[in-house]
Design goal:
Blueprint: H1 4-21, H2 31-39, H3 50-61, H4 71-90, H5 94-104, H6 114-132
Helix pairs in contact: 1-2, 1-6, 2-6, 3-4, 4-5
Length: 133
């Protein structure tokens, strides 16, 4: 079974391939641009466990989130917003709403660091070069 990070990386590399396929034929491939475009594209899942996400949302809701404005905080704020909307619509509690969101909703982006995105795209590029030789 693939870990969540391996699954995220596989999905991210698929997004990179889509970005590259959609480039104009005469445009040079800029690896950094491909990495950032793919990183900001919608992700099929939230790549976190239910238990960890529930703990982080409770910390966020109690105002004790130690994170400043970065991609991890954006992830928890997005999940929190979706849970809040779902709870208001259905009358369920946070654990039920989170379970629903994680099981059925996609993320607005991959929420990965630019350095990680670039490293993964470089791995894709290396694998493509090795396959051609």
């Amino acid at each position: 079974m693939l870990s969540l990070v391996e699954t995220r990386n596989r999905h991210f590399l698929e997004a990179c391939r889509r970005v590259i396929r959609n480039l104009p034929a005469d445009e040079e491939i800029n690896i950094s641009k491909v990495a950032m475009t793919a990183a900001l594209s919608p992700a099929p899942h939230y790549y976190c466990t239910y238990t960890y996400a529930l703990r982080m949302l409770r910390v966020l809701r109690h105002g004790r989130m130690p994170l400043r404005r970065d991609r991890r905080l954006a992830l928890w704020e997005e999940l929190n917003m979706k849970c809040t909307v779902y709870m208001a619509r259905t009358g369920c509690n946070l654990p039920e709403a989170l379970g629903y969101i994680l099981a059925s909703e996609s993320a607005s982006q991959f929420f990965i660091a630019p350095s990680t995105a670039l490293r993964l795209v470089q791995r894709l590029r290396s694998a493509s070069a090795a396959a051609r030789s």
